[in-house]
Amino acid sequence: MSVIEIKVPDIGDFSEVTVIELLVKPGDTVKAEQSLITVESDKASMEIPCSHAGVVKELKVALGDKVKEGSLVLLLDVAAVADAAPAPEFVAAAPDEPVLESKQAKAPVAPTQVATNSVAIAAAPVSPAASTAPVEVRVPDIGDFKDVAVIEIMVKPGDNIRLEQSLMTVESDKAAMEIPSSSAGVLKELKVKVGDKVNIGDLLAILEGVAPAADTAPAQAPASVAAPVAAAAPAPVAQAAVSAAAVVVPAAVLAVPAHNPTSAPVGLPHASPSVRKFARELGVPLNEVKGSGLKGRITDADVQAFTRSVMSGAIQTLAVEAKAKSAGAGTDGAGLGLIPWPKVDFAKFGPIERKEMSRIKKISGANLLRNAIMIPAVTNHDDCDITDLEAFRVSTNKENEKSGVKVTMLAFLIKACVAALKKFPEFNSSLDGDALIYKQYYHIGFAADTPNGLMVPVIKDADKKGIMQISQEMGELAKKARDGKLSPAEMSGASFTISSLGGIGGRYFTPIINAPEVAILGVCKSTIQPIWDGKAFQPRLMLPLSLTWDHRVIDGAAAARFNVYLGQILGDFRRVLL
Ligand code: CAO
Q1: What is the pLDDT of residue 217?
Q2: Bond from prior residue into 539 cis (ω within 30 degrees of 0)
């Protein structure tokens, strides 16, 4: 008997997660990669797979236990199956990267929502020899996503395809991913078209003239070595917004769930804490939502679908019942008591075309709706004089023409906001029940307009960066946003957001707070205005500001002071140094 310990692998950013499901018991024979337990954080549930084949000797966790990376899950007798099937050699997958399954490399099932470092492991592929035989490229393991839509095809028959070259983009309700090629060669035939729905293992393309082994991974990757998984089996690149690892959603549009200390009482519908919280925030009665996840588990998408159907009046009777129930007891807001969304046959009035909104728009819509309804938001408008700052900006750009970095007003605004956030810390806080979490970091999100919808990349530690560095990072992040290549990490963690329409136009607007942040600054186009200096009107360049704030946390006076202070800094940037 040779017994080894199976431990919780690197589970990303989660320090402690709860065991919510035991999928094996002592005596069970398990295959390598077979899921052993399901764990759940406030953001995601994930299955922990087994790194070896063997027989379960003893479980070391029970339902409800809290575990973290390195916690012992079970003891496994690997000798029991050694004769029958020798354990494969493994390489570690990169974090958050589902592993590609190709003909040469059989990848294991990645944890449900968060891929891991040490357990999402791929058997080392056998390098293909130089060959002209057709090779099939199939959908790799893309995690917990089913029926993902092909939204873009980047190659065409006849193209020379490199190993790992992106072939197409697929999109689920949580993320868009590029599917890379598992081989090099000439594209003989595409087996899918835009709009097709695909699943793991589906045939995507056929390549011919497969490249020699030099292009591919070594045949024998050393056991348990953290080799870049791309070399062995390219991983799809999670792009879009959406917190693929669990709640990978656009930072702009999906609030990171606040800390929820209470664990689920027994008997509640099967849903993770974050989904329950999301449902609570939208006033969705979870026991009326049909779960589409594993074993009927209710997902964010189910809650959103329920909300949409209520809004469209599809289940009017429920609304009527809810209203009837709340009558007499007074409305608590959960039942909202709204009349159904108007259903109009527009075709009666003229020609129409119906187009599905992008996934990002759908997700952002639900989150914007929640934020708009749940936050008692007020917007203060103000103007500030940026005449001198603009002159400085223009001269800075002239001096640094060769650097390739363009400084726009937004970089100065980010820096000025950091100074204002330091002076008025409640603007850099989040509500947590009856308490406020004051963040001691200054991560500033900025709204970026992209072809797929609104994205919010985040400049991390803006207080520690200069204007040039902020400008450079902004340029890179804005480009990634437009190309749909932002990683979840690049969109998370903002403590305050700026939405600048200055490059487009307009005077003022009322931006919606990106919960759980408590304020957002909207900026429009600066214009020359006649400003009275006590003796005469002077032509001054005035920048319109629109600060939206959460009245539960911030008072009107503080908001006015914030804007005034911001204006003073932008009027004379030397104040940042004070
Ligand atoms: N007043 C006058 N001009 C301004 C300005 C302002 N407040 N802000 C920017 N400009 C100018 C820039 O100087 C630049 O001029 P030049 O081309 O002559 O140099 C031009 O407008 C374009 O700037 P930009 O938009 O490319 O750069 P930015 O740093 O100001 O903004 C980004 C970057 C990514 C934020 C912006 O491109 C964008 O996507 N804005 C839209 C954000 C949005 O959609 N918000 C709404 C959210 S709510 O739905």
Answers
A1: 34
A2: no
Token pair 């040039």: residue: 468
Q: In the structure encoding, which two tokens stand for residue 473, read together?
A: 């990072």
Main-chain dihedrals φ then ψ at residue 232, nearest 5 degrees: -90, -45
Q: Under DSSP, is residue 558 helix (H, G, I), strand (E, B) or coil?
A: helix
Contacts of residue 349, defined as CB under 8 A and 6 or more positions apart, other chains included, come to none
Ligand 1 centroid–CA 500 distance in Å is: 6
| Pairing between β-strand 496-500 and β-strand 519-523 as defined by DSSP bridges | parallel
Question: Averaged over 29-44, what is the pLDDT?
Answer: 81
Three-state secondary structure string covering 446-471:
ECEEECCEEECCEECCHHHCCHHHHH
Integer Cα distance of 528 and 541 in angstroms: 4
Count Cα neighbours of 316 within 13 Å in the Cβ-side half-sphere.
7
Q: What distance in angstroms lies between residue 320's CA and the mean position of ligand 1's atoms?
A: 46
Q: How far apart are CA 186 and CA 383, in angstroms?
A: 59
State the Cα–Cα distance between residues 271 and 260, nearest whole angstrom.
Answer: 14
pTM score, whole prediction:
0.52
Is the pLDDT at 95 greater than 60, yes or no?
Answer: no
439 ligand 1 Cβ < 6 A: no
Catalytic annotation present for 259: no
d(C-alpha 426, C-alpha 559), whole Å: 10
Residue type, 370: R
